[in-house]
Amino acid sequence: MKRFVYINDDESSQELYCDNRISNRKYTVLNFLPKNLWEQFSRFMNQYFLLIACLQLWSLITPVNPASTWGPLIFIFAVSASKEAWDDYNRYLSDKKANEKHIWVVRQGIRKHIQAQDIHVGNIVWLRENDEVPCDLVLIGTSDTQGLCYVETAALDGETDLKTRVIPSACMGMDFELLHKIKGVIECPNPDKDIRRFDANLRLFPPFIDNDLCPLTIKNTLLQSCYLRNTEWACGVAVYTGNETKLGMSRGIPEPKLTAMDAMIDKLTGAIFVFQIVVVMVLGIAGNVWKDTEARKQWYVLYPIEGPWYELLVIPLRFELLCSIMIPISIKVSLDLVKSLYAKFIDWDSEMIDQDTGIPSHATNTAISEDLGQVEYILTDKTGTLTENRMIFRRCCISGIFYGNESGDALKDVKLLNAVAGSSPDVVRFLTVMAICNTVIPIKSKTGAILYKAQSQDEDALVNAAARLHMVYVNKNANILEIRFNGSVIQYEVLETLEFTSDRKRMSVVVKDCQNGKIVLLSKGADEAILPYAYAGQQTRALVEAVEQYAQLGLRTLCLAWRELKEDEYQEWSLMFKEASSTLVDREWRIAEVCQRLEHDFEVLGVTAIEDRLQDGVPETIETLRKAGINFWMLTGDKQNTAIQIALSCNFISPEPKGQLLLIDGKTEGEVCRSLERVLLTMRITSSEPKDVAFVVDGWALEIALKHYRKAFTELAILSRTAICCRVTPSQKAQLVELLKSCDYRTLAIGDGGNDVRMIQQADIGVGISGREGLQAARAADYSIGKFRFLKRLILVHGRYSYNRTAFLSQYSFYKSLVICFIQIFFSFISGVSGTSLFNSVSLMAYNVFYTSVPVLVSVLDKDLSEGTVMQHPQILVYCQAGRLLNPSTFAGWFGRSLFHLIVAAGMGPVLALKYFRYTYRPSKINALQQAERMGGPILSLGNIEPQPRLMEKEVSPLSITQPKNRNPVYEPLLSDSPNSTRRSFGSGAPFDFFQSQSRLSSSYSRNCKDN
Amino acid sequence: MSSNTPSSSAGGVGSADAAAPRRNSKRPKYSKFTQQELPACKPILTPRWVISAFLLVSIVFIPIGVVSLFASRDVVEIIDRYETACVPQNFSNDKVSFIQSAVDKTCNRTLTVKKLMKQPIYVYYQLDNFYQNHRRYVKSRSDSQLKDNSSWNDVSSCKPEDMSNDQPIVPCGLIAWSLFNDTYNFSLNNQQLAVNKKDISWKSDRDKKFGKDVFPKNFQNGTLIGGNRLDPSVPLSEQEDLIVWMRTAALPTFRKLYGKIERDLQPNEVIQVTLLNNYNTYSFNGKKKLVLSTTSWLGGKNDFLGIAYLTVGGLCFFLALSFTVVYLVKPRQLGDPSYLSWNRNPAGH
């Protein structure tokens, strides 16, 4: 479907499309109550409580005053409803502010000041500098003579750099007056939420320009909520308005994530419900029998001989009401409350403030803190996540000569400086590509220094390095670039920009040298995207070597290439490109195809190497979390060697002989299949050896593996604790998360850039690093942190405590309800099974709310172990990870405790004794650490512990690799608790063909051997 | 799919621009609460603590137990079960028809005082297997009617004993209707032994729950007579038997105060009791007992509390002792990281 926007036509499109009234509101005044109630009652628990409350209105069966249920129920509903209402009211206020903003719009050829909400599709909107864009516009005029303007898109995608927007060629050169009268039609797709694409066409009506179709891209648009910067004025045609803008469409409430713990609590609630039904049935039957045999003899109760038809139901229903408190009404409120406090603790944590920027960590999603303590897999991006994403140009290789190898900094290499001073042609061409083959915008500051606004850190590094080597990119004036080299100014005209996409892995510009009129194609890109397209005779060997060598050092490499184009070749191609650019369907793919036709027969000039330093504390963080039983996968768009080097330098994988790296590669299905089989076989064999085995796979092989050998790859994923996936696309990252999730693992994805957003949203927990690539990832994530090393604290401290606290709180909530319920049940046996409540309504309510629900909230400050101890013994996380503090068996413990406390109210003595015995002679790990913590210093001191890790790692990690996930119980530990038992079970060597079944066996065996 | 999905809280266009500066200013202030550093203690069950805690408990509990057991033993009780003995021989096979018949229900019992009983001696009647806590029964009363004359016709909660002859009953409900109606007369050496029936109910009940201006009306006028009748000229606040009865018992076996004998009874004195065995417990095989009891500072005769204290104290003492022995025989280092499974050397096993 397409939409046709008639420019400046006041009549035609008024009715067709909505006006520019923005509405983020969920409710209106009228529908608030029904809609909100409907939403709240779509939850099972609320339905249950409502049913109970309604039954209580029937005085024949209610054991207590209905107010004791209605009160809390109404209170809970009122709290969540007023929270919703408050949020909605704030949304309304901000909408109103945006809607009533005054905007200059052309009406009947005259510029008028109207409210933003009255803008219609087709209106021409005028903006001044620093104005916010009120709706999605197609740019048609700016103050700039070249038709450029700059926008800040931070509100849209979180990127803080300025972006250039340009008016379509058809509108070029129109003056002020003409813009008021312009008529035409814009053919654009129906509203969607893709802020990277806008595939449309513009056709101006005569008398303005001939009837030529002019393609429009996202570069010709001003999107809602962006700010106009560095441009005096701009005007554009409204194409999408109101809630149909790109921003409006992409808004939306993300699916709420459910933690493993919530699922478990739901399950337990279900179990309690079943138990309740059983109790009710038993008591109901007993009550009816007692009534018919005994109660008739009790003359003082005056039972009528013949009751109403529903007589048989009365007693069971009474017991249902009496037992309804088994499912505590307070649990949801308490949990919501403490969860939001967990999130606040993360926000407040002064140890997780990024010292460089002063940005504290932030929990956007307040509901999933417990899941942090149950993470089993961390999928991490490399650039900007493990590394600082502060690119520094370090080395280069120009036509076979290596620069910067001695000093480690090419900018200080005398050889290179001499070559630059001598204007060696190879070097000059190399520097030219460095300086202008990019989308960087130079901005002159008031002091005269030139600042570069770059979207990519690599380009920024290259341009800055070129500037240091006296090839200064001075100015960009529309299509004319100015370069100053050794005092002389060279001008280039940019003819086309072939933009970077993650599929093509290279970008190119076509420029015309203004001095001699030569047309040149300049390219830079990944080695495999450039080197295969070198012209036939070129010796690329030195370059390949250079790439290898740099990658070994963990540097990011880019190949720079160049080709002179003939005039007619360019013209011919230019037509094709133009056509491809104006297609509406599959434009990206078409463009890529056309680009391919130009990008060949390169003369490869050289290789640049850019260093991206590791962030502080990355190796330690990875080691600690690895010890905690968390598996790491690295997903990066970078190339294999670089990825492996980074992985080595940050403890991700161990070097030979301790570690072993298995490669999955291949270009065809068969190759990938064989490679996969081989790796799988090695993996199975080495699983019994103390070795760190990791596999490496690249994007291409991954795609084939996921498509055709999903089962084998899944098995591999289960076997492997470490994996490096390089050259992967954003959607592949998301696919890998999906794969691990489908194996029932708790996944955490961490990343910093737009390419990680999908993975972050897909994972159980998304963590964004608010880094240099903008806030995009941080915005989409559940948690945003400043540095990778905070992850350790986030998981081990906040995640673990949250898990422990929720485990206690939820089970306690059930426990206290069960205690009072059991008392009622037992009382019913001595009150003639008639359903008398032992407690009056007020006491019952006070017990539920004031005595038991409120005081126990203090447990939100509970710490079973100090933070330091947890950090030193991260293995203790296994308790949370395996869900050992909240599962059916611990719940049964609480259940038994409530029964026991009923029977022996003062029975603390025996409990204490039991506890003491367990504590002293069979302590759990937490207890042991608590004792150690209390006993103080020497045992815990690092000196004593230090020799252990090496051993531990040897023993634990390789063995636990082999712990495949048992799918059913959530509380199954990933990391074996007692390695010796695992070892033994492996020793009982079943043939490897039956690995699956054998490992199941072993995991269940180790479960039996678990000491707690 | 678009890579841009603003968080749901980002709100509208208007609020988006405030996002960036707000984050910086939100730098949290340091406090012990926000950093989760509030002082705390977590008791660790070390041998010393556990053994001394158990010892302490036993040292405190055992004397308390002994003292309360002695107090309970000091109480003298005479219990006489009479419901079977008071049925004449010819009715022994059909007690229900006896109780429902118009036969003279007078019955004589003899009680012998075993030990000196100091005044005041409380006279109770004890019923067994009587479910005053039955739901149907316990709800069948109207507190507003009992308290206030103006709401005399508020009998909605009293079903099925709410109306009689189309008139509201005061006091209404099953509880009042089934008021206990056995009476006891005591004589010692052929002399009447006075039983004081004043102040046998709770003062708060007399003052707050039963009105001074509420008089029984239309009570026990129906076809089915339940228990005792009430004197229509005496206000409810002075009908103390009713007040005692209407404070329903929680358990099916209960005692209710009948009166007080305000003189000492010497050992071997013989008390003659003339009782009217009116109340029907036969249809549900309930027992009726007459109880004379003195009190101590701990209340009536109740060995349970003393025994419970002694049991718990003794158990704690035993545990403390055995823990000490176990600790001495097989001590174990606490908090040794080598017990952590990941620190254990699997080769050693």
UniProtKB/TrEMBL annotation, chain A:
Transmembrane segment boundaries: 44-61, 268-290, 818-839, 894-917
A Pfam family it matches: PhoLip_ATPase_C
Annotated positions binding ATP: 381-383, 459, 500, 524, 556, 636-638, 727, 733, 755-756
Known catalytic reactions: ATP + H2O + phospholipidSide 1 = ADP + phosphate + phospholipidSide 2
SUPFAM superfamilies: Calcium ATPase, transduction domain A, Calcium ATPase, transmembrane domain M, HAD-like, Metal cation-transporting ATPase, ATP-binding domain N
GO molecular function, one term: ATPase-coupled intramembrane lipid transporter activity
Main location, first listed in the record: membrane
Domain P-type ATPase A: 100-162
Sorted UniProt keywords: ATP-binding, Magnesium, Membrane, Metal-binding, Nucleotide-binding, Translocase, Transmembrane, Transmembrane helix
Gene: LOC111309303
Active site: 381
Listed name of the protein: Phospholipid-transporting ATPase
Gene Ontology cellular component annotations, sorted alphabetically: plasma membrane
Residues noted as binding Mg(2+) in the record, renumbered to the chain: 381, 383, 752, 756
Keyword flag Transmembrane helix: yes
Region spans: Disordered: 956-989
Domain P-type ATPase N-terminal: from-to ranges: 5-70
Keyword ATP-binding listed: yes
From TrEMBL, chain B:
Compositional bias segments (type: Low complexity): 7-19
Main location: membrane
GO CC annotations on file: endoplasmic reticulum; Golgi apparatus; plasma membrane
Recorded coiled-coil stretches: none
Compartment(s): Membrane
Keyword annotations: Membrane, Transmembrane, Transmembrane helix
Transmembrane intervals: 49-71, 307-329
A family per Pfam: CDC50
Record region (Disordered): 1-31
Topological type in the membrane: Multi-pass membrane protein
Superkingdom to which the source organism belongs: Eukaryota
Endpoints of the signal sequence: none
Family affiliation: Belongs to the CDC50/LEM3 family.
Name by which UniProt lists this protein: ALA-interacting subunit
Taxonomy of the source species: Eukaryota, Viridiplantae, Streptophyta, Embryophyta, Tracheophyta
